[in-house]
Write a structure and sequence with these properties.
This protein has 6 domains: 65 residues, no CATH class; 144 residues, no CATH class; 55 residues, no CATH class; 45 residues; 161 residues, Ribonuclease H-like superfamily/Ribonuclease H (Nucleotidyltransferase, domain 5), CATH 3.30.420.10; 60 residues, OB fold (Dihydrolipoamide Acetyltransferase, E2P). The protein contains 19 helices and 26 strands. Strands 21-24-25-26-23-22 form a 6-stranded antiparallel beta sheet. Helix 10 packs across helix 11.
Length: 706
């Protein structure tokens, strides 16, 4: 493959992983050096030892030839191109031993055999080369390409004229002012300017050991050439069909890179500011451009920015598009094995199937690929071959026949979470109860159910979920007293509560989106307390939800519920008895019974017997005593230490106690300071000095006292 730049730059790019191979587009890694070769150039014979790179993806090796050399040639590219120009200028006249003018002065003679070989190779490729050059010319020359090239009188002359026009156009770009025609030819053809004719026949060489090697025959005889697979293949090993296809892909990629280079050229001026460059990029992204294939294409601003950055960092090579990578597709045997693993054990997930495939085959596709295989065979919904259970549409036959209950998360109010406890009538879609609570427990749901039954009557069946708020014994007792059948949904199969979920979805989309309990949403209605939050859904349910025609029933929930007539509401005494709690206690020998730390007196004849205590969880001062299923009186409070059951805390936490402002430690410190200030200083009563002062004064005082 051909690389441009000095040897140090090529070595740096090779070690940095910025060179890609022409075989599969993989990154090239250093792989020693190729054989030494002597090449004749204008300055005289020169010895080259080019670098070799190995593709990290496919493992092929490539010789990194400079742009001054063409593959499998003993003469420099500048010498060969000068000879071809001289032959084209002869206009068909044979030139046996051409004399070339060297750039440094003097004349340089080419052997007749070499000149004849170059002219023959070039004559067979002029059509394809000129077509490729004419496709690149509009991108390189810009507006100058609108003028057609003057005919040179021969196919070779036309091809060389197109090459000179492309070279002149490329010299307009920064960094390419000194580019030569032979360098352009090397890059556009990958160093294969004089490759064999495209119509030559490719055959296998039985004497060659290389699997990718082929011998090209032209007119029935072997034609020496170059194989793009391995530069060190002997002379009889020539370019194969895969090599020609790879060369065509490289040519298309370089054409696209050249088009990208020309597109971002207005934004590459180093004198532009960021604002000016942004305006140019926006203007380029706002209009359509003629693409490499001649069609109009639009390029986004983000893509243009990426191309500008790539050109700054890596130059022309960074704009060459990466070859498309198609991962190998697993065969049908792997699919059948994955399907069999799933069918023999339907509990296996796609991830588990992948682990088994990796252990069995040594490799495995991705989890998503296995999931697609299983979905295509319906093994995710029918792992055993049998269809899943189908559920028909169900609706209760009468109002208050089935009530469905569930809980939903609500907004945060005053920094605390809330929950919506909802009860819906299955027949009319009427919300019999909907209230926000702080604690999702059995006590709170019992309060919502109590209000719903007091306002809309007793249902025949209550259909709640399996949450902790529906699993208490208090709910079972309430349903037993009221004659309500309690039915729970099976764990993991909540399909029967779909009407409640649909109602909750409507509340979320139409009510909760308009309410906020904090200041983060100024466009919503602010709510400061739980009482205010519960007042809003009552009004919304009455005026909007119950008054609107339901899409399933075709009637408004309020009208459908009212059509059944007024419900039979239970009395206050029955409701009080139903929603009371009960416990079994043993009466002591002293005719007393204990309940949550409280002590009550009962009738003496109950001593030593087990009784049932029925009470309101929020008021433990009134306890009714039952024995043998009969009411035998009321327990008289003797010691009351708790007025409410510990499992029935208030919905709102009590407000914190007001601060008194008393600082106990400061009071102690002030008292101690006052006591110290009242002590007598006896040494100061006699008018003497402080004893802590000098020793001589102390001695004089002692003498005076004696």
């Amino acid at each position: 493959m051909t690389v441009r730049g000095p040897a140090g730059s090529v070595e740096k790019r090779l070690r940095a992983g910025r060179l890609r191979g022409p075989c599969c587009g993989g990154v090239l890694a250093p792989w020693g050096r190729a054989r030494r070769r002597v090449v004749a150039v204008f300055s005289g014979p020169q010895e080259f030892c080019p670098r070799r790179g190995r593709c990290r993806r496919c493992g092929r090796t490539h010789v990194l030839l400079p742009a001054d050399l063409w593959s499998r040639r003993r003469y420099g590219a500048a010498v060969i191109l000068a000879a071809l120009v001289l032959a084209a200028a002869a206009a068909g006249r044979a030139v046996a031993r051409p004399w070339l003018a060297s750039p440094g002065g003097g004349r340089w003679q080419v052997p007749a055999s070499a000149a004849w070989s170059w002219r023959a190779r070039f004559a067979g490729r002029t059509g394809a080369l000129r077509q490729a050059l004419m496709g690149v010319l509009p991108l390189a020359a810009g507006s100058a390409a609108a003028r057609p090239l003057a005919p040179a009188g021969s196919a070779a002359g036309d091809c060389l004229a197109a090459l000179e026009a492309v070279t002149a156009g490329l010299r307009r770009f920064p960094g390419l002012a000194a580019v030569a025609a032979h360098e352009v030819a090397a890059h556009l053809t990958g160093g294969c300017w004089l490759a064999p004719a495209a119509g030559a026949e490719v055959q296998r060489d039985p004497g060659c050991r290389s699997r990718r090697c082929a011998v090209m025959t032209v007119a029935g005889r072997p034609w020496p050439g170059y194989s793009g697979t391995n530069p060190d293949i002997p002379g009889r090993c020539v370019m194969t069909a895969a090599d020609r296809e790879a060369a065509a892909r490289r040519q298309r990629a370089r054409t696209v890179a050249l088009w990208r280079w020309a597109l971002v050229e207005p934004a590459m001026d180093a004198a532009l500011t960021s604002r000016q460059r942004g305006a140019i990029v926006r203007e380029l992204a706002a209009r359509e451009h003629e693409g490499p294939s001649g069609t109009l294409v639009a390029v986004s601003r983000r893509t243009i920015d990426r191309w500008v950055a790539a050109r700054r960092q890596g130059g022309f090579e960074a704009l060459v598009p990466s070859p498309r990578q198609c991962p190998p597709r697993a065969g049908t045997e792997t699919e059948e094995l994955a399907a069999g693993l799933k069918m023999e054990n339907p509990a296996r997930t796609a991830a588990q199937v992948r682990r088994i495939l990796a252990a069995q085959l040594g490799w495995s596709p991705s989890v998503r690929t296995i999931q697609r295989w299983l979905e295509a065979r319906e093994l995710t919904t029918r792992p055993g071959g049998a269809p899943p259970q189908a559920f028909g549409r169900f609706q209760a036959g009468a109002v208050n026949e089935i009530w469905t209950a569930d809980l939903m998360n609500g907004p945060r109010v005053a920094g605390k979470a809330t929950f919506l406890a909802g009860i819906i009538d299955d027949r009319s879609r009427f919300l019999a109860g909907a209230r926000f609570v702080r604690r999702p427990d059995a006590v709170r749901f019992a309060g919502v159910l109590h209000g719903a039954i007091a306002a809309h009557g007793i249902p025949q069946t209550l259909y709640p979920g399996n949450g902790s708020c529906f699993a208490g014994s208090s709910l079972q007792r309430a349903c037993a007293v009221l004659g309500v059948k309690l039915v729970r949904s099976a764990p993991g199969r909540p399909a029967g509560r779909g009407k409640t979920e649909r109602a909750f979805g409507t509340i979320q989309q139409q009510f909760l989106v308009e309410v906020t309990g904090d200041g983060q949403h100024p466009a919503r209605h602010p709510v400061a307390s739980l009482e205010e939050l519960n007042d809003l859904p009552d009004r919304w349910v009455r005026t909007v939800c119950h008054a609107r025609v339901h899409s399933e029933t075709g009637q408004a929930p309020q009208a459908r519920y009212a059509a059944a007539g007024p419900p039979a509401r239970p009395g206050p005494a029955l409701l009080r008895e139903a929603f009371s709690w009960s416990v079994i206690r043993l009466v002591r020998k002293t005719a007393t019974v204990a309940l949550e730390g409280n002590v009550y007196c009962v009738d003496p004849f109950l001593a030593g017997r087990k009784v049932e205590l029925v009470f309101d969880p929020f008021d433990l001062t009134q306890v009714t005593v039952y024995w043998g299923g009969r009411k035998v009186g009321t327990a008289v409070p003797q010691v009351i230490g708790r007025h409410a059951h510990p499992k029935a805390p208030p919905d709102e936490d009590p407000a914190p106690a007001a601060l008194t402002g008393v600082d106990y430690l400061q009071l102690i410190a002030d008292a101690d300071q006052a006591a110290l200030g009242q002590q007598l200083n006896l040494a100061a009563l006699d008018g003497g000095d402080d004893p802590a002062q000098g020793g001589d004064q102390g001695g004089g005082d002692q003498e005076g006292r004696r």
